[in-house]
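User: Run a structure prediction on this.
Assistant: Running it now.
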Amino acid sequence: MGLLSFIKGAGEKLFGASEAQAATADDLKKEVEKHGLSTEGLDIQVDGDKVTVKGNAASTEQAEKIALALGNTLGVASVESDIAVENATEDAKFYTVVKGDTLWKIAEEQYGAGKGAKYTEIFEANKPLLSHPDKIYPGQVLRVPPLA
């Protein structure tokens, strides 16, 4: 997956994190687990505002969600993901939410005019990181999966 960029001043506020620096590796692991994602076999390293994660995941989707769970936290500017996947599928696109965005608007922009109703695809692709389609915020990075 490589390097993903994030807005380090946006995201979940974890204990010990600031806009200048990410939380500790242990706190970031807890954040990933909070979303029901496995951290077994993952090596998470923090260097200031950069997080590096290595290990294995069951699917491309799970690997992408792990990277997003790490990156969508206060103080993280980038995530270098070197996660090997057992069942590789096509990578999703990543989209950074801006003020005024809705999942409908993002679907129209990413999938084409008249496809706003496909916002459910984006919502489902970001569960459990998203709990409700209306709860997105500027600076948050979302997975935008390819349409089937």
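Residues 4 and 79 are 5 Å apart (CA to CA).
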